[in-house]
TrEMBL record:
It comes from Paracoccus limosus. CDD domains: TIM. This is Triosephosphate isomerase. Homodimer. It catalyses: D-glyceraldehyde 3-phosphate = dihydroxyacetone phosphate; L-erythrulose 1-phosphate = D-erythrulose 4-phosphate. GO terms for molecular function: triose-phosphate isomerase activity. PANTHER family: TRIOSEPHOSPHATE ISOMERASE. One of its GO terms (cellular component) is cytosol. One of its GO terms (biological process) is glycolytic process.
Amino acid sequence: MAARKLAAGNWKMNGTRAALAEIDQILTEAQPGCDLLICPPATLIHAVATKGIPTGGQDCHANPSGAHTGDIAADQLRDAGASHVILGHSERRTDHAETDAAVAAKAVAAHQAGLIAVICVGETEAQRDAGETLDVIAAQLAGSVPDCATAANTVLAYEPVWAIGTGRTPTNEQIAEVHALMRDRLSARFADGADMTLLYGGSVKPGNAADIFAIPHVNGALVGGASLKASDFSPIIAALA
Ligand code: PEP
């Protein structure tokens, strides 16, 4: 099995039911050559899934149920129609102090609920400037990806923190270097690590998508701002398909 190509949209805390029209437009325009995923706010998961497009949550709790006001369990995401869940996004790591261990525990919960975990890793600008990028990514991979990960239940996303929502992207060489490291580490640790889907995320736009998708071991993208409008996301999907 080769790594599957995936165009994933992370709507973050954006979108009400009015935004569902964008899903209809994306489905009208989508090419069949890659997998699609939309991760809307939890309030829209059921409605998006009902349209027949693979749908993901943006976080889940490590526990299956209980007294955790405001949180959502992996099984509840699954029940609402989700097939995936983003875990360890840098905004969760920063805003909610999520550690690698917490991300790994959530990934185990996601797998137990039958969800595909989209686990994010990425360095800060200070870490890149200090020459620590590869060490940071290796440590996050080791700590955030649980032993039960397989190519079927886990997708990895390299998202440099400084590239998210900024309009800045690493050079192709910088992306290639990190993706090669990820492939090496995952292949060394997991029997099917060579087949795991590796995404790049951080200011992917219609204008840079094709160049990024040509980089070795980049199997697709996790797209934030440019996934909110079909007019932006559809060309990105087309560049991958
Ligand atoms: C993200 O938040 O996952 C992301 C990649 O955002 P953006 O595409 O807006 O940089």
